[in-house]
Amino acid sequence: MGEFTLRRPLFSWFPLTFATVVWLFFWILLAAEEVTGAWLGALVVAAMITFFWTLGWGNAIRYGPTHVSVTNLLLTTRVAWTDVRSVSNEDGLTIVLRDSRKLSSIQFGGSLLGEFTGYPSHQDARNALKAAHEKATYGQEPPTTEVHVETRLWWRRPLLLFALVYASFLPALALHQLI
What we know:
Structural class: alpha+beta
Largest sheet: 5 strands, antiparallel
Radius of gyration: 21 Å
Low-confidence stretches: none
Number of strands: 8
């Protein structure tokens, strides 16, 4: 079994669509006419697009046969399945550790709409995580050692995206320098 990724489709695609529209609008604006402060504007737009991409696509819950990880903006928290006590839907999807700490995801957080609809995407994610947890810990006694939580900064993909988005504006920016 490889690693699986859980995302809410609407929560992922809406920010990506918005970022794409902003990128397209700004590119057309740059290509159509010379904009005062365009280099700085391109930096701001690239940062904004990177933020929306990170919010929509970067935030996710990933799990494999031995671990589960939750990425929220630029931080990824990873724990072994043996350190997970339960997975529940308490005001959003929550992973409860053996020491009672809780991991939650921006992607699967609580919402008013979710309260009315019963969190269908949260239920599916919870069922997938519960099944993976049961499979990973089947027949094992919970360890008595301290819970190990690994937290790391998730920066490479957002930085690469920022550089690519900014680089995509360079032809339009250079066009007015040549004219």
